[in-house]
Amino acid sequence: xxxxxxxxxxxxxxxxxxxxxxxxxxxxxxxRLKSIARLYVRGLPPEIAWDDLLQEALTxxxxxxxxxxxxxxTVAFVAGILRSLRxxxxxxxxRESGGHGKLRIDHENDESLALDLPDPxxxxxxxxxxxxxxxxxxxxxxxxxxxxxxxxxxxEGLSADQIRCSTGLSKTDYDSARRRMRRILxxxxxxxxxx
Amino acid sequence: xxTKVKKESSEPALMRVLDAFARxxxxxxxxxxxxxxxxxxxxxxxxxxxxxxxxxxxxxxxLSDFFDLDPRKALQATxxxxxxxxxxxxxxxxxxxxxxxxxxxxxxxxxx
Lengths: 195, 112
Fold this sequence. Notes:
- The complex is a heterodimer of chains A (195) and B (112).
- By secondary structure, chain A is mainly alpha-helical.
- In chain A, 58% of the residues lie in helices and 4% in strands.
- Chain A has 8 helices and 2 strands, in the order ααααββαααα.
- In chain A, α1 (15-21) packs across α3 (50-63) and α2 runs parallel beside α4.
- Chain A starts with 14 loop residues before the first helix and ends in a 5-residue tail after the last helix.
- Chain B has a domain at 12-52.
- Chain B has 4 helices and no strands.
- Chain B has helices spanning 10-26, 30-39, 71-84, 89-107.
- At the A-B interface, α1, α2, α3, α4 and α5 of A face α1 and α2 of B.
């Protein structure tokens, strides 16, 4: 009979536990950050998990590689790191793959002076993934036509006032729609599903 | 002359939506979090709540979270044992005699 492996007796704290112990965040902040991490992982490949993204962001705060500017709350600060981790991931992928589209500027005689400029626009695969994620987000609010209008407006980069003007919503209707959206986002964010 | 309209990629639109939602969640109140958690049957006031899966404790438990499964340790222990106590000549002989004993028994088919 194979012997049972010894039980793990050493306890390793996760960055979130450390941040909690150091009182950088409280439990509710962690839940806010969980919801935001689950949001920012949308459109990333499946091997990138939201919890890895969150723990990495908290590690950067704890290690001091990112300094929180004065007047910015920890949650807003970590949310910014989560966003930049996402951007960093795509930048790395684009660099490793050599860019999906390159503009080559040749020098007539000297090959060493030739320059490859990667196209900063999203490639077709990434664009398709983003399209699917946008559809998945809209699916969350399928029963709420006002929310769908607001999402369209947000996607176009409109401000709250501009969305209200274009959709003809009153301030009260707009605010209550945003409240409904927050509730759905939180439910989606707090769930235990891997992604 | 026709004017070509280039449709914008979905990626910037997705980022704008995600940024707007993230801003919304940054400022969400504790009460709203508790309400949403309650709707999911969670109680975030308890540290062991499912709401903290992937945050305070892993969302996907693995065997290595409970057992010390590092194979390097087992190999290092064996290597240490070999380095510290190399098999003596007596042990070598006894091993050989055991093997030869088995082989002798096999050679005599009449014995029980």
